[in-house]
Design a protein that fits this description.
This protein is mainly beta. The chain has two helices and nine strands, in the order βββββββββαα. It folds into two domains: 76 residues, no CATH class; 81 residues, no CATH class.
Length: 180
């Protein structure tokens, strides 16, 4: 499988990649009767979202989704209004997503933890799926209850320890299967 595009998370004024969602999904397009189509092999889920914390609440602030009408050809299906925001069309040639929602501030009722990564170490890249947590310099775990941020934990030192063990070994299977 091709390396996948990560969803984004704005945390402490910085952009992070969402590396792992521990308990279920943050967003399910079927809630809005949307059935996304993969725009390319780097985005099999058919959408990418940007999340943030606003006043201690988890929100989806942007959604880029590919919706196609059934039938012959590749015709754009216009997505529904979400939280009062109508979707815009593609931003230009090369835009993979045909529905773009900006400034959504759509509150999510998520309970669980989200693992964020920043400072990906390119020399550890594996061309398959999403990258492992330990391949990021900065890792934070955010714990939510009913969409409210309850705890934030800096896991960067733990990931550095795992990275040290993993890169000491030359066995690729070992490197990609480190549990955390």
């Amino acid at each position: 499988m091709t390396g996948q595009i990560n969803d984004a998370f704005i945390f402490k004024g910085r952009g992070f990649s969402i590396v792992e969602v521990r308990d279920g999904k943050l967003f399910d397009p079927s809630v809005f009767s949307m059935e996304p189509t993969a725009p390319c092999t780097a985005c099999w889920q058919g959408y990418v979202a940007k999340y943030a914390i606003m006043e201690s609440f988890l929100v989806m602030d942007a959604l880029y989704i590919n919706l196609v009408k059934s039938g012959p050809g590749y015709l754009r299906e216009i997505g529904p209004v979400i939280n009062g925001v109508e979707p815009l069309g593609p931003s230009g040639k090369g835009d993979w997503f045909n529905n773009r929602y900006e400034n959504l501030t759509y509150r999510l009722n998520y309970t669980g933890s989200i693992m964020l990564g920043d400072g990906f170490i390119q020399s550890l890249y594996v061309h398959m799926g999403l990258q492992s947590l330990w391949k990021y310099e900065n890792v934070f775990e955010l714990v939510f209850e009913s969409g409210v941020l309850k705890r934030e934990l800096d896991r960067s030192r733990q990931m550095a320890g795992i990275r040290k063990l993993a890169t000491r070994k030359k066995n690729k299977k070992y490197e990609d299967n480190i549990p955390f």
